[in-house]
């Protein structure tokens, strides 16, 4: 039996959980309802990305494209200018400031909530989820042996936590090895030489923070192709919706295979250049079309895309601010940052340091590099199937949720409803966050996640208690 007081529990208080709560507070009718936001960190709204670190890391997108409100594109830009009139809408602003913005949105939404709708924040970690009957309610197991009964549950806990890389068995507790690049201990001032596994945006952030924290550190970054992210533009593309329609038209008939997708994208890019556009227009158009195209790709073709094309897509899609690129270039010019293309074959203890054995791309001979610290910056990859997170493991063990065939994320239905091991979509259990990539591919940036949050909030507001 469902409680007269409807409780909606959101597990995770980062961007997704906070923006969903804001949307719910604005959309729920004035009936008795309690929104509970569960977050293990001290502050809501910051998650991993928007913490105050002291290193002034920048957002990868200009302020004018970072609004959390789909209907108000310049909302964040106005917030920033209220803090400092010198901050322009085209500027790449500090991540900490974006966390402040999300916190203010939540405060305002709580204050303006309709009668009968209440908000509660719980600091704790959810470790188990039990469905009382076929459609809920759900009993959430929390830290310190607390429990919460909820009519609806939304998992907004982001990606699966980092796990040790396969080439470093037994090093999970080694003080010089960090599988989580966001650990405060990762940037120790006593480090003379550091290896960063991965060369994408996370590596860029860690490299800049490490260089600022330790003026004498020598940084090495290694990935399969050794490619750095492209540099972000401070101007938005125009007409990308029409360009996305052109890409869809090119792929309208027949199955979408990775090679065919690549040919269509290249043809579109060439055509845009003839018309005065550039590759950025093509990437932004492909981003719009990506969910539809991804859903039409057979699993074997998705896997082929991941093996051969993902690195090039990520390089051009997830770009870094010009200031970040310039700083990395200065570090490389000064000999403080070295970029390598290759594979890590093994990581072993070397008496207080770590010995890394790696093979350069295109070579057969192995090389060794002894470092004081190894930090895995390779991203989420396909680690959901290997996770040690108690809540995620509990969901898989109970059958309430299953991973997609490529372990990119959860299998989901409409609005992120989790699909159980029997193939049924839950009516009151949802996921919101980057692991929606399994169904939509594009699900990691504010531009997509704010839309998914709004759609889910609308659907939840239409459900009667």
CATH architecture of the largest domain: 3-Layer(bba) Sandwich
Q: Which CATH class of the largest domain?
A: Alpha Beta
The largest sheet has its strands arranged as 8-14-9-10-11-12-13
Structural class call reads alpha/beta
Q: Can you walk me through this structure?
A:
The protein is of the alpha/beta class and 465 residues long. The protein has three domains: 6-57 and 94-160 and 383-461, FAD/NAD(P)-binding domain; 177-230 and 319-376, FAD/NAD(P)-binding domain, CATH 3.50.50; 240-317, no CATH class. The chain has 13 helices and 16 strands. Strand 4 (126-131) and strand 5 form a beta hairpin. It is globular. 40% of the residues are buried.
Q: Keywords, please?
A:
13 helices; single chain; 3 domains; alpha/beta; 6-stranded mixed β-sheet; FAD/NAD(P)-binding domain; 465 residues
Short description:
This protein has 465 residues and is α/β, with parallel strands linked by helices. The chain contains 13 helices and 16 strands. The strands form three sheets. A seven-stranded mixed beta sheet has the order 8-14-9-10-11-12-13. A six-stranded mixed beta sheet has the order 3-2-1-7-16-15, covered by helices on one side. A three-stranded antiparallel beta sheet has the order 4-5-6.
């Amino acid at each position: 039996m469902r409680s007269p007081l409807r409780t909606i529990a959101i597990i995770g208080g980062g961007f997704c959980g906070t923006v969903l709560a804001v949307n719910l507070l604005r959309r729920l009718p004035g009936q008795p309802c309690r929104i509970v936001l569960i977050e293990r960190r001290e502050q809501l709204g910051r998650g991993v990305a928007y913490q105050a670190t002291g290193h002034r890391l920048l957002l990868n997108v200009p302020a004018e494209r970072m609004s959390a409100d789909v209907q108000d594109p310049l909302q964040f830009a106005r917030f920033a200018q209220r803090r400092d009139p010198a901050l322009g809408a085209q500027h790449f602003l500090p991540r900490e400031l974006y966390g402040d913005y999300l916190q203010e949105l939540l405060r305002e939404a709580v204050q303006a909530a309709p009668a009968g709708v209440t908000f509660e924040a719980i600091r704790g970690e959810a470790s188990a989820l039990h469905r009382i009957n076929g459609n809920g309610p759900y009993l959430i197991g929390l830290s310190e042996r607390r429990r919460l009964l909820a009519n609806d549950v939304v998992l907004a806990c982001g990606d699966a936590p980092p796990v040790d890389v396969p080439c470093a068995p037994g090093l999970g507790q080694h003080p010089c090895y960090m599988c989580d690049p966001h650990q405060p201990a990762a940037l120790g001032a006593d480090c003379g030489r550091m290896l960063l596994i991965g060369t994408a945006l996370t590596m860029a952030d860690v490299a800049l923070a490490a260089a600022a924290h330790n003026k004498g550190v020598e940084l090495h970054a290694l990935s399969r192709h050794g490619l750095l992210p492209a540099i972000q533009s401070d101007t938005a593309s125009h007409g990308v919706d029409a360009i996305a329609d052109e890409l869809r038209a090119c792929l309208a008939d027949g199955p979408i295979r990775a090679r065919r997708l690549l040919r269509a994208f290249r043809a579109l890019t060439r055509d845009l250049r003839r018309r005065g556009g550039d590759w950025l227009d093509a990437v932004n158009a492909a981003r719009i079309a990506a969910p539809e195209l991804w859903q039409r790709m057979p699993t074997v073709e998705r896997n082929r895309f991941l093996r051969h094309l993902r690195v090039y897509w990520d390089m051009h899609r997830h770009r870094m601010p010009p200031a970040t690129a310039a700083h990395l270039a200065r570090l490389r010019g000064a000999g403080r940052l070295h970029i390598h293309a290759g594979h890590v074959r093994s990581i072993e203890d070397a008496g207080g340091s770590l010995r890394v054995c790696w093979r350069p791309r295109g070579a057969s001979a192995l090389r060794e590099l002894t470092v004081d610290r190894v930090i895995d910056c390779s991203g989420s990859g396909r680690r959901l199937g290997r996770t040690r997170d108690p809540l995620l493991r509990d969901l898989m063990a109970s059958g309430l949720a299953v991973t997609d065939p490529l372990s990119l994320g959860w299998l989901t239905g409409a609005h992120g409803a989790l699909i159980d091991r029997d193939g049924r979509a839950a009516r009151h259990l949802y996921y919101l966050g980057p692991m929606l990539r399994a169904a939509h591919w594009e699900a990691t940036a504010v531009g997509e996640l704010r839309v998914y949050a709004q759609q889910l909030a609308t659907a939840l507001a239409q459900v009667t208690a």
